[in-house]
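Encode chain A's predicted structure.
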Amino acid sequence: MKTEDLDKNLLAAAQDGCTISPILPEGIKNYLIDIDGTICDDIPNEEPERMLTAAVYPDALITLNKWHDEGHIIFFFTSRTEEHRDYTEQWLKQHGFKYHGIIFGKPRGGNYHWIDNHLVKATRYKGQFTDLIDKEVTIQVFNDGQN
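Encoded structure for chain A:
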C-alpha cells in the first residue's frame, strides 16, 4: 500500500447518527514505531552525525517489513527533528525498511501517556522485536463509572 493510498482504505463511521472520524478496516493496525533505541542504536539528536551509522536491530527490520507486507500501516514516530529527515530517510532506505511515513518532533524524555478517542495500544520495546502476543496487564483508564 502506497502512502497516498492510505486514506482510500478508511471506512466511514458514525455515532448517534452523526459522521465521526473514519476507521481502519478490521484487522489492520496503524503502527507508530519509535526509531532510536527501538529499531536501531539510541542516537541523541545532539549527535546527528551518528544517525547514518546506527546499527540496525535485525528483528525489528524483519518484523516491521512483515507487518507492512500484511497490509498494516507503518509510521515512524520519532523525537528526531525535521532537520534530521535526510539522515533518517537515507538510513531507513539503506537498511530496507518498508514504511508509509515519518512523524518528527515527538516530545523527548519518555514516560508517554497517550490519550485519544480511538483505541490505543502501547508496547514497550525491551530488547526483542517479535510478533505481538496477548497478555493481561493492569492499565490506567478514565473513571467512567463502569468497573
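The mean pLDDT is 90.
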